[in-house]
Amino acid sequence: MADVSSDQSEPERPATAQGARDADTRTGAERGVAAETEAVPASAGTEAGAERDAGTSAEAGATEETPAGPNPRRLLALVFAIAAVALGLDIATKVAVVANLEGGPPVPILGGVVYLDVFRNPGAAFSLATGMTWLLALLAIVVVGVIVWLARKLRSTGWAIGLGLVLGGACGNLVDRFFRAPGPMQGHVVDFISVFAPGGQYYPVFNLADSAIVCGGALVVLLSLLGRDYDGTVHRGKRKQAGS
């Protein structure tokens, strides 16, 4: 009996060794799959992080950007060139109307849409603040100083045009404050443009300097609403809001 059981149990040993090898093979395969499974999330996390960083950079770039812009020296020259033209036209027209029209009847032009009617204005643009001549002269000096200081930092052609117009207009009226009667810092500004009727019946009488100040100021406000700063920075969010 002992011999028979021994003969029957011996063939099972190779099967047991083979099973162990199979188990080792399965265990190694499972370890490989587990390693691959652990490696995939790490790689995916890295790629996802890179995508998030790229998205953040893209959003930041879409919100604000600072292009190279024009040459600062050219913009500075543009500011003073526009200011010089505005100042020259303002002085020339004032000299002409004072010499030829002051004391006479209003002269209609453009079919009566505009009247040339000379007035001496002690106040600000469009005959505002008539009792504060010296304060207006001081304010004009401050405005001129600020524009000259800011002009060196310009990186925007639109801002250069706008500030040039304001600078020329402010200087034009400031010349009257200094050199016309009754005296320095108290001189009365010459106004001569009346719209739709003489004497400023529908709209205050003004001059070319006033027009330059209004046009330049309006351009600067428009650029600000569009998200364009004087230094060339473009705020895309503001531009979209202004366009909506």
Automatic annotation (TrEMBL):
Q: What pathway annotation does it carry?
A: Protein modification; lipoprotein biosynthesis (signal peptide cleavage)
Q: Where are the transmembrane segments?
A: 75-97, 124-150, 157-175, 205-226
Record's Pfam families? Peptidase_A8
Its membrane topology, per UniProt?
Answer: Multi-pass membrane protein
Cell compartments where the protein resides = Cell membrane
Query: Which InterPro entries does the entry mention?
Result: Peptidase_A8
Low complexity bias: start-end ranges: 55-68
Q: So what does this thing catalyse?
A: Release of signal peptides from bacterial membrane prolipoproteins. Hydrolyzes -Xaa-Yaa-Zaa-|-(S,diacylglyceryl)Cys-, in which Xaa is hydrophobic (preferably Leu), and Yaa (Ala or Ser) and Zaa (Gly or Ala) have small, neutral side chains
EC id? 3.4.23.36
According to its UniProt entry, the protein's GO biological process terms are:
proteolysis
Active-site residues from the entry: D191, D210
| A single MF term (Gene Ontology) | aspartic-type endopeptidase activity
* Disordered as annotated region, ranges: 1-69
Q: Name a GO CC annotation attached to this entry.
A: plasma membrane
Cite the entry's keywords alphabetically.
Aspartyl protease, Cell membrane, Hydrolase, Lipoprotein, Membrane, Protease, Transmembrane, Transmembrane helix
Q: What class of enzyme is it?
A: hydrolase
Q: What's the stated role of this polypeptide? A: This protein specifically catalyzes the removal of signal peptides from prolipoproteins.
The family line of this record is: Belongs to the peptidase A8 family.
Q: Which NCBIfam families match?
A: lspA
Q: What is this protein called?
A: Lipoprotein signal peptidase
State the species of origin: Saccharopolyspora erythraea (strain ATCC 11635 / DSM 40517 / JCM 4748 / NBRC 13426 / NCIMB 8594 / NRRL 2338)
Gene this chain is encoded by: lspA
